[in-house]
Amino acid sequence: MTRLRPLEKIRTDMDLILQYDKSLFINKLRLGDMPSDTTRCDLEQLFGMTAYIREMPIEGLVEDDRASLDESLEQINSLFREIHNYDAAAIVGVEKELREKIRERADHLHAVTQPWRNLINFLYE
Description:
By secondary structure, this protein is mostly helical. The chain is 71% helix and 0% strand. The protein has a domain at 7-56 and 93-125.
């Protein structure tokens, strides 16, 4: 069994994600202004879902859900550090890989939080 980190650390991870400059990522990955670009939509989803989750009561999460959320946030932070640290010219060689990682992280965060978000939405409707 993995040792769970304090809830404050999970919130800090969310804050770190939200502090990244989304427009910098859009420029580095050459996502342009096309809202139909799937990578841009995935990136928007990562920021939007993190902001949404940041405001939710995570204290009641069961251990497995908390561990999954913690892992997902760590993966997103790692990916964002990777993109942030790339030189815009050097990113061209790994651009496709980074786009795929963004898609994977968005899908994973969505899957991890979907049951929890459904329950919260149901309770507060």
